[in-house]
């Protein structure tokens, strides 16, 4: 799992002199990339653009836990017929699975210029 962000320097930095006026400003983005069992899943984008970010900040939707990736993976599936001495046939079935649940939330304060993020893996 990997988290990515970009263009948030103007929100969290008070250093105005370091910005190059000739360089275009990067758009605010954030998201999560997940690789499960060797397969990369399409990135989950939390927001893209300053308008979407401010919408999350003012409405508080980022403060609620949001599921990003949920799946159940089949690890073992075995079926075997076993003849018994009494003449009956016993059927043995073994099924094993694992469940993934990735979710996250973020609390962002523009006034204190800090952020707190939480990612839960179950």
UniProtKB/TrEMBL annotation:
Record carries keyword NAD: no
Keywords: Endoplasmic reticulum, Signal, Transport
Protein name as annotated: MTP large subunit lipid-binding domain-containing protein
Comp. bias (Acidic residues): 14-26
Subcellular location: Endoplasmic reticulum
Residue ranges of every copy of the MTP large subunit lipid-binding domain listed in the record: 19-120
Region annotated Disordered, chain positions: 1-32
């Amino acid at each position: 799992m990997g988290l990515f962000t970009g263009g948030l320097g103007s929100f969290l930095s008070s250093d105005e002199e370091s910005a190059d006026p000739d360089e275009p400003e990067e758009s605010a983005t954030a998201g999560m990339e997940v690789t499960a069992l060797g397969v990369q899943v399409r990135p989950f984008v939390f927001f893209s653009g300053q308008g979407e970010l401010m919408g999350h900040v003012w409405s508080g939707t980022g403060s609620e836990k949001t599921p990003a990736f949920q799946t159940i993976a089949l690890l073992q599936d075995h079926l075997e017929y076993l003849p018994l001495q009494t003449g009956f046939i016993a059927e043995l079935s073994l099924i094993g699975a694992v469940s993934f649940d990735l979710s996250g939330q973020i609390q962002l304060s523009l006034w204190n210029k800090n952020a707190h993020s939480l990612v839960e893996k179950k």
